[in-house]
Specification:
single chain; globular; alpha/beta; Rossmann fold; 7 strands; seven-stranded parallel sheet
């Protein structure tokens, strides 16, 4: 396999990308992958410095990784639960880098609990970050995308958006609200794709499968029963890159899973810098 590197003259040269939830895990990998193909990437999350989260990984780490390999990245700390912060994030990205060509809605905050025990505060926060924030950020970037007649929006979903299969039995892990958020995000993706198709804008949702990220670890989602389903993070990073660079006339309105999508397109994931 060729040594991974930043290619300043890559297919995304001249493109501006905004990736949310990019301090660690899937968001970090996506930001790195887009930068490898020449995109100038704005990375955002709530965690910029060590000690601001119980989980490992910060925006400074992501920025350092991209810049050390020769890429171009901008750090913007933001709390996507706040509308004013979302507006500031888009404005600062535009002011520093230019119009946003690629928006990747990856940020999430997740709690697992049965519906009977789910608090209003946690429900509201999950819906705000995982549903309203992608909706609002899309609204904020669409005017420039329409004016430029090009744009790519990729929403990160999950298999949790699929209805539970019957027969029911055993103990559920309390993922109903998480599944609601992802199902709403998928319906938003396909609906928006139909609305902006004539504007040359692609909108897709992609699910990563089970990936060994810090968030997955803290929720204990990798067990003896699920460990064989763990997928390398490179699969989702590659799938997002392809959805964020494909022809909006033909690759839009998809609710895809990373590995099957890559097989369909005849692609193998690139290693990350």
């Amino acid at each position: 396999m060729p040594q991974p590197r930043i290619n300043p003259e890559g297919p995304l040269k001249g493109r501006i990308a905004l990736v949310t939830g990019a301090s660690r895990g899937i968001g970090e990998a996506i930001a790195v992958r887009l930068a490898m193909e020449g995109a100038r990437v704005a990375v955002s999350a709530r965690t910029a410095e060590e000690g601001e989260s119980r989980l490992p990984g910060t925006l400074n780490d992501t920025i350092a990784r991209i810049r050390a390999a020769g890429g171009d990245a901008l750090l913007i700390k933001a709390d996507l639960a706040q509308a004013s912060e979302r507006e500031r994030l888009v404005a600062e990205t535009r002011d520093a880098l230019g119009d946003i060509d690629i928006l990747v809605n990856n940020a999430a905050i997740t709690y697992f609990a049965p519906v009977a025990d789910f608090s209003d505060k946690r429900f509201g926060l999950m819906m705000e970050v995982q549903v309203h924030a992608p909706f609002h950020l899309s609204q904020l970037v669409l005017p420039a995308m329409k004016a430029n007649h090009r744009g790519w929006i990729v929403n990160i979903s999950s298999g949790a958006g699929i209805h539970p299969a019957q027969p029911y039995g055993g103990r559920a892990i309390g993922g109903t609200v998480y599944g609601m958020c992802k199902a709403a995000l998928e319906r938003f993706s396909t609906g928006l794709a139909s609305e902006v198709y004539a504007d040359g804008i692609a909108v897709n949702a992609v699910s990563p499968g089970l990936v060994a990220t810090p968030g997955v670890a803290v929720h204990g989602l990798i067990t003896e029963a699920t460990k064989d389903r763990v997928q390398p993070i490179e699969f989702i990073a590659e799938a997002v890159y392809r959805l964020a660079s494909g022809d909006p006339a033909t690759l839009t309105g998809r609710v895809a899973y990373a590995e099957p999508l890559l097989k369909e397109l005849g692609l193998t994931p690139s290693a990350l810098v």
